[in-house]
Amino acid sequence: MSELSSEELWRRKLVDEGFDNVYVWRDAPNAEYNDHSHPFTSAHIILEGEMRVVSEKAGRILRPGERMDVIAGTIHSVKMGSEGCRYIIAEKY
């Protein structure tokens, strides 16, 4: 029996936490998303690269293995690192 990858372990954990629509996304180097919000809570787990998230309350740079949840309705912006970013996104409605 093979061991599960960290990606698969994260997927299972997120589903167990009640997240829906769990998928992997990749953004190009230095890609940006200006101020926006979502009608759902989202979880972001970095697999490769870096992501800088700035919300109403704080800013943070996420690196591989790190997680940040953004509560529904929170205004935030995002910028990817110079090597782009590959990450898991999960949504909870």
In short:
With 93 residues, this protein is mainly beta. The chain has one helix spanning 6-16, and strands at residues 20-27, 32-36, 41-55, 59-62, 67-70, 76-92. Strand 3 and strand 4 form a beta hairpin.
Question: How would you characterize this protein structure?
Answer:
- This protein has 1 helix and 6 strands; from the N terminus they run αββββββ.
- The chain has one helix spanning 6-16, and strands at residues 20-27, 32-36, 41-55, 59-62, 67-70, 76-92.
- Strands 1, 2, 3, 4, 5 and 6 form a 6-stranded antiparallel sheet that branches.
- The protein is mainly β.
- The longest helix is centred in the first third of the chain and has 11 residues, at 6-16.
How is the topology of this model organized?
Layout: H1 6-16, E1 20-27, E2 32-36, E3 41-55, E4 59-62, E5 67-70, E6 76-92
- Rounded to an integer in angstroms, the radius of gyration calculated over CA atoms is 13 Å
Strand content: over 45%
Supply the helix-strand structural class.
mainly beta
- Assembly type: single chain
DSSP summary: helix tally = 1
Low-confidence stretches: none
Order of helices and strands: HEEEEEE
Give the termini separation: 35 Å
Biggest sheet record:
6 strands, antiparallel
Global geometry = globular
Helical content stands at 10-25%
Mean pLDDT: 95
Number of strands: 6
